[in-house]
Structure prediction request, 205 residues.
Amino acid sequence: MNPNDTENHNAAPQAEPATDAAPGAASAPEADPIAVLEAEKADLKDKLLRLMADMENLRRRTEREIADARTYAVANFARDMLNVADNIHRAIESVPAEARSTAEGAFKGLIEGIDLTERDLLKTLERHGVKKLDPQGQKFDPNVHQAMFEIPNAEVPNGTVLQVVQSGYVIGERVLRPALVGVSKGGPKTAANGAETTDNSSAAQ
Prediction:
């Protein structure tokens, strides 16, 4: 036997494992296509939900802005008209009660005409969301009232509106003009629940 043949026979089997190992080293685990699609689906669903929430917020904000524009668009005009309402009311108050009760003829017609004009003006303002405040006898509220002076009176709860110097007006939920009022002082205090309380220290004396 040729010695070269023995060497060649021994060398051939050693090369085969190297050939078989190459394909295994190059292969990698493939991603699950269903898992990939599920991930994409979840991502798209999340984006869609976020977009729908943004659109809903935008719709609500737009509706609120449109409602506010409708409600308060006449605010400046209404504020100017309050001077007219004040002048009409002053004209009515300038006539003494006795003269009004005994008025006849043209004078009586003039007084009734001024009264009717004031009522129509207030109804027109109210139709556009402007309401007149009538705080006489109510508890003083700094949000809608402005105290001009205090009136000593021990017979009514402290902080009660006893006199209205100038009527106030609101438009929607906003104050168009606070009412100028005189507030009682010296009476029993009013508790948070509206009940009257007495000063125990004064009572003990």
